[in-house]
Amino acid sequence: MNQQRQTLDKQGLGAVxxxxxxxxxxxxxxxxxxxxxxxxxxxxxxxxxxxxALRFFSFRDPSVRYAVIGSVMLGISCGLLGCFIxxxxxxxxxxxxxxxxxxxxxxxxxxxxxxxxxxxxWSFDVANIxxxxxxxxxxxxxxxxxxxxxxxxxxQTTKIKEDSALGLTLASFFAVGICLLTMIQDLPTGNKSGIxxxxxxxxxxxxxxxxxLMLAVTLLIVAVVFVFYKELLVTSFDAGFARSIALPSEWIxxxxxxxxxxxxxxALQAVGVVLV
Length: 276
Prior knowledge:
- It comes from marine metagenome.
- It is found in: Cell membrane.
- The protein is mainly α.
- The protein has 13 helices and 2 strands.
- The chain has a two-stranded antiparallel ribbon.
- Helix 5 (102-111) runs antiparallel to helix 6 and helix 5 (102-111) packs parallel to helix 7 (162-185).
- The radius of gyration is 23 Å and the shape is globular.
């Protein structure tokens, strides 16, 4: 019976995949060519759909290469961490962190306009504001860690349940981030900064600096999971047993949350705060 059920499940999945491919090719045949993008890179408007597709899959355009490479690295980093997060029944944590980092993104962007000529001689110039990936990353990580700390504090010191603490943190941090983004858009360089792309993401806006940052974080996550796989596995599946064998469960949990914050931050440019 089990073998028959597995066979039927495989046949059902195969049928679903076949129907999905059929639907995609049907749309390609039905949708008029005028509904597709006019050009890819510097391809002229009169270029046919087939030539556009060929140019896209040849990866000759840097924006296409960066988008594909960045998406692959995001899939690796988020996939590795997502397994442990789901097993720990903390799926909402990623959503909360993605919204909580928004104020840090905005503050990191604003901090790029700060210049220091001395220890206590600081100045802020709107004209110097730019999208610095390192500053945005640091600001977002600090905001993410602050959001995690707030959730833990509310859960341990009040009668608020964890899901309520997550919702409260998500709403409050996201509201502050929206206010800061609105203020940035009113600056002379705000509309040209591309900072608004962090809301919904834009994979085509990924540049070489973003790729370097994604690569560093992805390598860090892969290395940590490879080295501490057994510890992460035990603490995720049986926290009581992990404590009984003297594993530092709290430190492992906080380290995992820090890695999740890293993964969320590097995913913002591609998929945005709303979709992470």
